[in-house]
Amino acid sequence: MAPAALEQRYVEREVIYLLGTLDTNPEHPAARQELHGEGARRHARGHAYAEAMAKRNHGPPNHRILDVPGVGHDGEKMLTSRCGLAALFDSAGCGAER
Q: For 31-56, what is each residue's pLDDT tens digit?
C-alpha cells in the first residue's frame, strides 16, 4: 500500500494520544535525542505531532489528545491513570481532553 494511502487510513482511525504532563525530561534514558529538533520534551512533541496531523490535507483526523496529569514516562502509571482507563474502556473520567 502506498504511503499516502496508509496515512489516510491512519487519519481516519480513532486514535487517542495519552500525553503525560510530567513527560518533560530531555535526559530520560528513553528520550530520543534525534527528535529534539521537534521539541526537547516528549509531552510537547506529542502535541506538535497531533497539530501537524490536523493540518495535513486529509480532513480533520479522528484523533484526540488526553493530557495525563502528574504522569511522566511511565507506561504503568499512564495506563492505570483516570485518563488511561477512560481511553482503554471508552468511558468518562479524564477532564484533560483537547
A: 555 555 556 678 888 888 888 888 87
In 1-98, which residue ranges form alpha helices assigned H by DSSP? 3-12, 42-55, 75-80, 82-89
Measured CA to CA in angstroms, residue 79 lies from 18, 20, 27, 71, 74 at distances of 9, 11, 23, 10, 9
CA distances from 39 to 15, 24, 42 (A): 22, 10, 7
Are the C-beta atoms of residues 81 and 74 closer than 8 Å to each other?
Answer: no
The answer to whether 82 and 89 have CB atoms below 8 angstroms apart is no
Calculate what percentage of the chain has a pLDDT beyond 90: 33
pTM, full prediction:
0.76
d(CA 4, CA 67): 29
At residue 8, the 3 state secondary structure works out as helix
